[in-house]
Design brief:
Length: about 260
Amino acid sequence: MSYFQQQAKIIEKVFVGPDTFNLDLFCPDIAASARPGQFVMARVDEGLSPLLRRPFSIHDTVDKNIVRLLVKIAGQGTRILSGLSTGQSLSLLGPLGHGFEIPTNLKNACLVAGGVGVAPLLFLGRALAARGVSCKVLVGGQTATDLLCTKEFSDLGFDLGLATQDGSAGHKGMVTDLLAGLLKEEPPQMVYACGPQAMLKVVGVMARDAKTPCQVSLETVMACGMGVCLGCAVKSVSGKILHACKDGPVMDADLLWD
Ligand code: FES
């Protein structure tokens, strides 16, 4: 595994929702070698609290120089990040982990995003578009402001399906309702998904029942990000313990749920 540790300067911070922002970080070594589905570990504060690095999916890269993160404020670490300004730096370790696999003969795919789980799927979407893979993107959230990156996916020429639990945009219900219809009517060759664990399990089981390969990006707590602390263990269907940071974060759904 080849990775870099860099002091990354904040180039830009742009809020894309009430509590969600893009953070552009200048780190050429990491940006140039990053693959869709990989992540970085960021030390959000040089002080003692919070002590550990936090994992963030690589949301996008710009000009092979900049890593873009999509951050939702959800605790002390992300609140500290939201208070940082352009010109400040933070220590990044990456790119880490096992990313998405794109089969060479892939012609079409479905991307399923739950909330801020859309983060790694935009970077993946750009790679798929560059290979001419046509995509249906299903984006779900509790309410309309949770539906992120819809313009970016449209700009890539992808079809969009939206779902909100409160009905404020798109289908009223779960994003997996949309997937169920798609798998029945025009099943894709591959499903890629990221979002809450409960959503990923439903997606994985639906895809398996439809005999469609499915890769999921797990969002788990991580302390080291490098297979050392064993804090990100997940149990596979065979009983084998896997580590989200090293064996993932992208894994075949078949490995996780039967
Ligand atoms: S985060 Fe430490 S082993 Fe995975």
